[in-house]
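Input record (one chain):
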Amino acid sequence: MGRRRAREVALQVLFQVDVGKVRPEKALIFTFNEFQITGETAAYARALVEGALAHLEEIDSLLKKYATDWDLPRMANVDRNILRLALFEMLYCREVPVNVAIDEALELAKTFSTDDAPRFINGILGRIARESFCKERTE
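The corresponding structure, as predicted from the sequence alone:
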């Protein structure tokens, strides 16, 4: 299935945890069972969810800094979680090039959010990539 499918699953789990206040393990098990996710796809989805949640404070701090006209609670729920997922990959997954993390976030936005979401997400992630400590990874 691959990493794209793992990102889709991770997004669904992060959404459940964020909006539905579901415990992460329960959301992971439910989503894996619902969509019959196993093997490497499940392992990568789990790593994305656990990593994003473990670094949520830092990730949200960056979002607050760079989404200057948007409060996190005011942001569309799905967009907020796409950004969290992408930032985790950008900041902590050295094997994933920054441009790939951004491209994958845009694909998630096209699939799960509104028509305006890719431009919004690209603006925030692109700015973080250019101005933050991710810069060396984009060059």
